[in-house]
Predict the 3D structure of the following.
Amino acid sequence: MAHIHEKIDFTASVYIVHDNAVFLHLHTKTGKWLPVGGHIELDEDPNEAVVREAKEESGLDVELIGPHSESAENDDERDLIPPRFMNRHHFRVGEPHEHVDLVYFGRAQGRDVRMEEETDYKWFSRDDLERADLLPKVRYYALAALAELGS
């Protein structure tokens, strides 16, 4: 987990949807239900970072969903899927700093989860999201992902 700067980092997270449920895990450092994600490394773009983080943290292969062009002017460029949301928040665990988080929506082909760390995880239905003790932005983003990607 490289820090681009000691005071602020760019991160990417993804709300993964499968079969009308959203995947969240109980973050080991914060004790909150969150989507998978993490720091964007210097040698990757945000799309690469969020797909890598999803695979590392959950074992899930994720297809990012969103508008993008398949055309590029040359071989040295490609269009990226834009985030659905962006937010800036303080991260007060360890060395306090801030995150600028790029929030994506994605689909998983299945629910074969293999967590990187021993932690609780759950596939939350719409009803689960309404009843669970979640941060307001997590509930909002997760419900938006379900509204867009659920059947």
Remarks:
- DSSP finds three helices and eight strands in the chain.
